[in-house]
Write a structure and sequence with these properties.
There is one protein chain. The chain is α/β, with parallel strands linked by helices and about 230 residues long. The chain folds into 2 domains: about 1-115, Rossmann fold, CATH 3.40.50.2300; about 125-220, Vaccinia Virus protein VP39 (Rossmann fold, 3-Layer(aba) Sandwich). Helices cover about 35% and strands about 20% of the residues. The protein has helices spanning about 10-20, 35-40, 55-65, 95-110, 140-145, 160-170, 210-220, and strands at about 1-5, 25-30, 45-50, 70-75, 90, 125-130, 150-155, 180, 195-200. Helix 1 (about 10-20) links the parallel strand 1 and strand 2 (about 25-30). Helix 1 (about 10-20) crosses helix 4. The protein is elongated, with a radius of gyration of 19 Å.
């Protein structure tokens, strides 16, 4: 999977590339529509990251053959952002690198371009807990309070917007031991035996039997080493 960053600001495009590379995402950079057109002609890219100050909507339509390529738009005023594809995100500048990476990752998972296994659970924790159907994040935050700062609690929700909002709200409350993942409770994007416990499976309405089986798969057995 390869993305193309279209931005005349070399410092910003370099920052984007470096941030995404640390998270395992590859991008290449170009400085404007002409360079982007040349790059697209030479290479099959999967998505675009475009700075509105560099590329107009007409440029984007020409580059993507009518707007058929997933595009993340950067702009200083989201209210004045030109519309790309329905559902594609707009990120306001300036942004924090962690927030940018998180929103990009969730977006790529939402549209099926990133592999769920790309979520790397940090190893230096006492235990991991999973909250399925995290929604607003209240139940996920409650688990974090219950298990303390030494544990990592993962909030999983099917909806991109819900995961982003829950992360923002939890950060305001000072939680540092939470991860947010977009995914399906009946097809969990985690390895076998990762979690000490899983909650929220009762909220999975589609394929509840599959969700229950997945919960058993990702829950560590009592005799499994930590």
């Amino acid at each position: 999977m390869l993305g193309l960053v279209v931005d005349r600001d070399e410092a910003l495009s370099g920052l984007i590339a470096a941030c995404l590379a640390r998270d395992g995402l590859r991008v290449q950079c170009t400085d404007g529509p002409v360079g982007a057109a040349t790059a697209l002609a030479r290479q099959a890219y999967d998505y675009l990251i475009i700075d509105q100050a560099t590329c107009s909507r007409d440029d984007w339509l020409r580059l993507t053959g009518g707007g058929h390529m997933p595009t993340l738009l950067l702009c200083t005023d989201p209210a004045k952002a030109w519309a790309g594809r329905t559902g594609d995100p707009v990120i306001q500048k300036p942004f924090s690198p962690p927030e940018f990476v998180m929103r990009t990752r969730l977006w790529l998972l939402e549209i099926g371009l990133a592999q769920p296994e790309a979520y790397r659970i940090p190893a230096a924790a006492e235990a991991f807990f999973l909250d399925i159907g995290a929604g607003s994040g209240q139940s996920t935050c409650a688990l974090a309070r219950q298990h303390g700062p030494g544990a990592v609690v993962v909030g999983l929700d099917r909806h991109f917007g819900a995961a982003v909002k829950a992360r923002e709200d939890a950060a305001k409350l000072g939680f540092a031991n939470l991860l947010w993942v977009v995914g399906d409770g009946a097809c969990l994007p985690f390895s076998h035996g990762v979690f000490a416990a899983v909650s929220g499976v009762a909220y999975v309405q589609q394929d509840p039997q599959g969700a229950e089986a997945e919960c058993h798969r990702v829950t560590r057995s009592p005799d499994q080493p930590t």
